[in-house]
Protein 1
Amino acid sequence: MEMRKETGRRKRQHPQSRRAAGVMFAVLLAAVCLMNLVFRGRLFPEGDKREFLTAARANISLLGGKRESNGIFKGKDHYLLEDIVKPDEAEVSRTLEHMKDFRSSYMDIPFYLMLVPGAANVLSDKLPVFAVTEDQTEQFENIKESLEQDFVWVDVEKALEAEKKQEIYYHTDALWTTQGAFYACSGLIESMGLGSQKHPSLKPYAVTGDFHGALSKDSGYEGGYREPVYIYSEEDAQDNTKVVVSYVEEGRKTATLYDSSKLNGEDKYAVFFGGDFPLIDIKTAAKADGRLLVVKDSYANCLVPFLVPYFREIVMVDPRYYKKGLGHVMKDYEITSVLFLYGGNTFMEDNKIRGVLTDDETE
Amino acid sequence: MGNKKHFGEEDRVLRFAVIAVAVLLLIAAIVVAGRMGNLREDSAAGEEKLEQMAKMNVQMNEIRIQELENARDSQDDQDTENQDPGSQGSEDQDTGDQSAEDQDAQSQDAENQDALSQGAEDPDITIRDTEEKKYTGNGDTGESKKKEAQEKLFGRTEDLPDLGRGLELLLGFLPVILILYHVFPGRLKDVVILAGGVLFYAWGEPVYIFLVIFSVLFNYMSGFLIAGALKEKKKARRRLIINIVANVGLLFVFRYGAPVLKGFNDIFQTEIRYRELPVPVGISFYTLQALSYTIDVYQRKVKVQRSLLDFAVYVTLFPRLIAGPVVKYKDMTEQLRGRKTSLADFGDGAFFFIRGLAKKLLLADAAGRIMDVVFAMEPGEMSVLSAWLGCLAFMFRIYFELGAFSDMAAGLGRMFGFEFRQNFAYPYTAKSITDFWNRWYISLVSWFQNYVGLPLSGKRKTVGKDIRSILIVWMLIGLWHGASWNYILWGLYYGILLVVEKYITANAIQRIPGAVTRFFSLLLIMAGWVLFFSPTPGSALAYLGRMAGIGGSGLTDARGIYILMSNVVLWFTLIFCSTPLIFRLYEHFIYRGKRVRTVMNTAVYAVLFILCIVYMV
């Protein structure tokens, strides 16, 4: 116990220092309390809206060399990259089983699977030094192998890899940009045997310069970064394929794929179809015969517009919101091909896909 | 002279203000710098396109599409030539309204049919729903499993809480209690502090207020009963034993009941039914404190406490928070009455409290995040480097977390006029395992040595009795950390090491240079932490194997290097703050020459406090 005397009993600080500290503590505590009362819910709000504090924390930690916050890397060139999810093997293989089962009831029509790799995979050179992620390429390989007999695999990774010099991912969001979707879409159209791009006259137009993605809000990095969102259109917008978009559960119809009112809101990506909805039915004036079902997450919203000229009808189902089975959709809409389109991370994590695939046994 | 001093004071306030503003500006600058950069693009043309598209008419398009469909149908039926749908659309514009109405009516019908068929689908939907529930259910068990594993990994989660609701505590609870305490006169201060303690225990599960109240009343009465029987040794002894059995029994039921029954069921394949009770906050602390009182009374070391209020204050002891030091009654008895607090004491408390807060939020939590990353790795994918870093992260985490709670308790204690002894004295600089236990959780070790060790080894010390007493004391210390084999094993491990050190290697250690013994002590301590955090002895062995390069994936890998390099500043800070070096350097900095750098000192602590608030949310 002699040890304790040596290092133990702290010498008390100078009385004057102690008094000063007493005043400081009382004043700071009172100040924070008062601020909390005055700006009730704004200084220390609940849930996700702690942006200022998250940003302060992330940026202060940056001084210590830490370039990761809430599973999001602060990469080079202002890129924020979401960490690759480590899948629960059992869950994923169950999802795959359900997909195979579902596919086996419709052997006469083609099924396509399109998984979009994360930016941390394609743009791995943008990751911070030393950073490593799960091997998404391998994850995709495994899925591809297990579904080889039943699904046509559309290789997005290769298509994006070839165009990685372009802005194929948003800097502040996990989603791909419309350009990214455009490049990947050529591969899809080829796989579907629909020939090459039908409309070479489509051109990208920025519809806003103020997009600020969810990764920035979640991580606290790049709080001031703003980037454009593009749509592809004909020179004269009247020349775009005519459509009627029905939001079936909402009982609403529009004649456009875009909801420009969303450009004034928080989530500007919702300009595509106004966001995610349970079931969207797009009837097109295209001279085509196919009817496509897209089972999808948000990645699909900016890709589907490219498919419009190739199908007379496209039905988009988002299993996160759609609470019924797909069997009726297949029948009622006389679907002639099916596309599963997901971001890699959502596909590995989201087991709701199984939900929409399981109703048919009772039929 | 007086004038000059006055100026001096003002000058000081000014300097403090300048430093404070400078620091706030720095933080603001960091945040602003993080916001720089963008990729703006002119969007006028695109917006125009959108506007154009928004003007498109649903009915017009519907007609067009309908015509296309018709054309297809007629093509199918009559095999006629394809008509140009575009031109026909414009020709038929006059009749557009008419057919649009038709269309509407049709779609209405279709919707009705949809609704009907939906009704018919209902059974399917319910099946789907249950299916989905099953899935989400699975998700839940997955999460709870993860949580369970984490709790196992870091044992006493109930005693070492996240400061998840810390902000409420800091901004709501603490100021109110502090103000009330300093506003009320005399004995009312004690009432305030008691109310604070009781409310604090009610934080997690309000019902357990009654448990605390029962504990207070029961031990208060026991004190009288034991003191009254002190002349008849047997009677006093019997009463003390009843008291100990009741206290330990209560602790056992709430803290160890469910795990023990579960273990019993597992081993003997029985199915005794039990309910998993949430563990009452701080029960393992106030039970020890209550026991300390009754035993001290029995040993005639203290007088019986007549004031119920004082006794209740002692048992609940609000400033100790949830996991501060385990105090002994004989150390506290003087402090229960007539405590004085001055502004200087308050400031002293502030130093301790802010240090504690910083240890928890800036060091322990950061180390905990590293630990979580390593422990989440697949065993086969863990390199030697990662395994060591994970163990180091745990080592720092548990030290800074426990140290943080002790410091915060010491700080709050000072603010309310209590003084607690130092609980941790740079344990990782220990020269031997014995030295380590002189520095680690001093109050806990001293409690067990005093109330278990001494009575066990008896008056006539023999080697056998001494060894038995050491083993039992450390086994109990292990068990105190939680109802799990790994804690008992951890305790026994140290018991054996201490015995070996005491009776075999004691002389040898003194001849070896300090640096060497320090290094080997640290290795043994780290091995001990592996036992502590591994849920089973098998997994502990496996982890130790991975640290030695067996069963893992190579010496280093990209992941390990990332964990090391991306936290390089943190690692240095953790090491630096675990040694007395930080204390000495800081003292040197503040007391350089004859002048005391009050302003600098206050500013440093103010910045720490602000940082803590930023990191707490």
Protein 2
Amino acid sequence: MGLSEYIIMRELNFPEINRFERYCQVGGWEAYRTAVKEQTPATIVQMVKEAGLRGRGGAGFPTGMKWGFLPKGVYPRYLLCNCDESEPGTFNNHQIIDRNPHQLIEGVALSAYAIECNTAYIYMRGEFAAAALTLEQAIDEAYRAGLLGKNILGTGYDLDIYVHRGAGAYICGEETALMESLEGKIGQPRLKPPFPAVAGLYGKPTIINNVETLANVPRIVEKGVAWYRSHGTEKSPGTKCFSLSGHVNRPGNYELPFGLPLRELIESPEYGGGMKGGRPVKIIIPGGASAPWLTAKHLDVPLDYEGVAAAGSMLGSGAVIVLNDTVKAPHVAYKMDEFFKHESCGKCTPCREGTHWLVKVLHRLAEEGHAEPDDIPTLHGIYRQMAGNCFCLLGESAVMPIKSALELFPEEFEAIIKASNERHQRNGAHAIPLRVS
Amino acid sequence: MLLETHREAIETIVGRYASPRSAVLPLLYLAQDVYGHLSNAAIREVAGILALPETDVFEVVGFYTLFYSRPVGTWMLQVCDDVPCCYLGAEELITALKDSLQIKEEQTSADGMFTLQRVKCLAACDRAPVLQANLDYVYDVTPEKVEALLKDLRSRAADARRRGVSGRFAEDFAVTEQGAVELVARDAPYQSRQFEVQGPPPPPEPIPPPEVESGQDRAETRRASPL
């Protein structure tokens, strides 16, 4: 069953909530008004901590704890909202901004107040050009209502929120690369430590949170910790916007409490509506391109951070891609790793060279059907040299598609090699025995 | 010169950041729209405005994919070819565009109207396959609707030149079954693409039609926003 009251996708309860007056009518901006006038920043931080809000960008790190890492008494501080959504399968930030922009802005404003910062930037990927305008328009409305700017509501608190558009680089979703990009440099990640909370944007303490994470904050402050915790599971409270795509009848964003079985998301007529044409499920990628793959036997896995982790994958950004039996595993791995190759920033060698060679081998194998007898050990060798050796998570993520494909569907690689070998033989070349390990 | 024609906008942008260098991406977008693409002279000009080493700005232009350092068509057509788009018709769409325009990827049509690119995930996987024209999303394009789309874009060429390739005034569109290209209203209820459902159909969600024309809000943004 769908939620009776949505936390993020509130346009389903209240149509036209993207308009400022409408958002205020249903209680919007009230939490922020009350907070700025009557509550201390520490109260807000405490509420977010107690609510157990976890970062929705992929890592699932507790948001309140992240805020707690800020060194005391060091100012200015910055809040950055990460809207560099670009990984294959993820598309919920776009919808949140188009349909419910004020909740995000209120979330940014509340969080900025909580961490005592006066400047917040919303970093959007360059391709979200129209969404950036929507957001700027909504921010203008908040300024006009006196909710942003100088001396907000006569309390002496100042806050400016700016939209900053990137220019087409997935790596800028990595928090330190995002700060580099915002400083006007190329988006290459920084070495950690120091962590952004200590030395981030312009060397100042900085907090970076995902769009969906920040959109939760106004509801927590407005309705309270107990109400928020009544959704989801003990360890993963609240709801998650699952982005369902691929060979399903009804791809789209579905906000659900944590813990629903994967099968229900895919098959329920309310959500996925089953597989297109009734074909069987072959590959499920439960958390965006960087998540290890699941298969049809994992359909009963509950969709929360712990449940998906126990099945050997990760919930990540909640982007569920479901593919049917018409796709070939080596080709999916090729397409995914091509994405990572394209988006590799080139800073570290294992990622820059590793993704390059993975794609080179996979393109020949999956796209052209030309295989060498020891392609399988070669691929194992490449990703093993990448795993654990890359500078940031992008390179580590590129390991997952090929590793999953080789583990779950080795016979498909062997079949390509066998067919290629037979073709060689027919052409009079010597048969070369297949090596599988 | 940008400083003469857009001084106010540039000052607003630079004023947002603690360091002027942060304004490099927005200024490059501006320069790209004014000059059509980022020529060496345009890149040097931006470096001059922000007092940055020229090589640093060239490096930025080379790194980010939305900056074009060679001339491009009036419309940049960018089609996502990632998973899941590539399994839901992106390849067929790219083939149809190539056939119709008689070009390959990264080339510009003979009339200078269209440049075709394959790009990575555009974050609208529920509407796969996804295409952007000058960073306006155009939803529901199928190979059969390609001609209608190209015709519409040709007729809006003056509009494209005025707004530029950087998406500073972007709007989202969808192509109807009849091939008409229509603006996606922000107030309209969110519609993901739906395929024929097997089994019982989902109950439709009754949502009243919007009271206000969405165009009014948009026009206001255009005046208010310098970028």
